[in-house]
Records
---
Amino acid sequence: MLRRLGAEVTVIEAADRLLARVTSPPVSDFFRQLHEEEGVDVRLASQIESYEYVNGDVAALRLSDGSVIEVDQVLIGIGMIPNDDLARAAGLTVDNGIVVDEYCRAGSDVYAIGDVSRHPDPQNGGFRRLESMPNAAAQARHAADDILGTPAPYVDVPWFWSDQYDVKLQCAGLNTGYDEIVVRGDITVGRQFTVFYLKDGRVCAVDSVGRPAEYAAGKALIAGAAPADRQTLADPSIPLRASRRSRETSGGDREHCSLLVTPQLSR
């Protein structure tokens, strides 16, 4: 946004790549190239050592490598720490957030939702804490359902998005622990591609740039935990189609399964 307003922008990143906490090196490289093409000065593996002031206003930054950058304004993003002091004082279980069950219950008649809640992870096991608007909105619905006596477990696939210039990045799932990536499209040419993250042969996450249909197909695959056909995922000439079916389980409950993405034959 600052570039669109005509400002000169320098990004100072402590990690050795952009978006290191949320995506893979190929996608990080793409976004670094994107910002540099738009005129942003990207400084990786850099830290601010000190600030220099003139008449009480910040005027320059001195970096850990000794370089100095003159500035008019500084925008600092340092992340969040869950504010769980009240929950801790109330005797609720706290572990990097307020621990809740699959119905967002933190205790008797107590619910916790949003960035501060740490809830069961149905896709990967264990617990997770998500800092995102879709997660907060979905948990609010599930908590309300439970209060109204119509409980439904929160098993939604996490999803996120980011608009940068004319590029929309859509992400689903969590790529923690992936052991293989499949790139669909050419990351180095144009501004459209999809990266599928596989764990034990199944899609656990997807990052898609400018390809919403492939993002949707990847999200369905994550929910269904279906084995992945790597050749189909990697071949842009094969349209992706995610289909669903229902089947009766041995206990009589209906289980909804996302099937493997299959090729659509062109006529």
---
Amino acid sequence: MKKYFKIGILIFSLFLVYFGFANYPKLELISGFSAKSVASGHFIDNRSLDVIEKSDNDFDVIGWATNEINESGKFATANVLGLKKRKAIYREGLGATLIDDAFDVTKPYEIPKRTKLNNKLPFPYGDLAPKDTVFENVNYTKLNQVVANAFDAKGNNYKRTRSVLVIYKDKIIAEKYAPGFTKKSVILGWSMTKSITGTLFGILEKQGRFNIHKPAPIAEWQNDNRKYITTNDLLHMNSGLAWDEYYDRICDATKMLFQAEDMTRSQLLKPSVFKPNTHWNYSSGTTNLLSGILRKQFKTHQEYLDFWYSALIDKIGMHSMLVETDMAGNYVGSSYGWATTRDWSKLGLLYLHKGNWNGEQLFDPSWAKYVSTPTDTSHGRYGAQFWLNAGNHFPNVPKDLYYCSGFQGQMVAIIPSMDLVIVRMGLTEEPQFDFNGLLSGIVWSVKK
């Protein structure tokens, strides 16, 4: 018996050694993700630690982390078995930022200036309650059944939808929230933030301040083949730059989001591996590089901070939105935009109306066509910081659908031919969640 016991101890010890060797490098990323998620969810949307751990952080190895919230200091910490402790601080106006030991928390910082519309108009152009409108061509019984089916039945936790909002001809025709969430809940859009970042270039072009077809204004690229990369290539994820993007392992994207001080430089430093416009490759690093390019268009950091809100976010009444910054003060344009479901829908409505917001043209109408035109080599799946249905990814939905898309199944879908904007926020992606079923069901509920 002693012999078998010793063998068992040896096997267990070898397992621990292997487990530690295989996973130790991931611990910093695990604790980094967890600390950032806890700080953002708690201080931006007032979620409890228990809710965050059982929902936002309840996947893969993120649940290994032990988390704490410091209310008075406005920060959260996380570690894994006491190892690799990480800290994320919250600053009003900038959101939560994952920091390293060298970050000076006492250093003064600038925050964006915000302007709130007070025009006493109903949604979507103001903050008053939306007007009740009944459309004869809408089958409300079927529509409500489709929307309800997007949510888990009581006791289930599979679909994990948090909200669904359907807008037809600028009117809300369906809206539903999961328990614990309301129209005031501020939800992380993850990569839907890329569409915000891309839109700002359309606004700059309309203002005559930027030409996306010129080589990207990056000094570090001027002595090699990267000098031929245009901002247009970057917007289309078609630059030819090296980049790995996965979320189940250590890669360029995870190192950027959970280790980099200045996220705008993560893609900038990568070599060219393909000629521009010959190889589509999805990259969050590229969008943060675009955020860095935006920063260089302004004389001061304050102007850069203000522009995102004054030119777009607050201009269309997305007053709940908060775009978080990295340690260097750059907006994390790839991933860290938060807003209510209704406010996310306003970005879709802006594109549905080709850049016109209540009479003011924010970007040229051609920009909506630009972002929804397929990128070369993307097989009809991607445009310019927007995903597309041109390749019939959703087979039962009109091909002119294009959409903002984020990790864990965030979506703002725009269907110009149907005059529809559909928002779904949640914690599951395809194939676990049936987006084709949700979208097609809504489409068939609205008879043209």
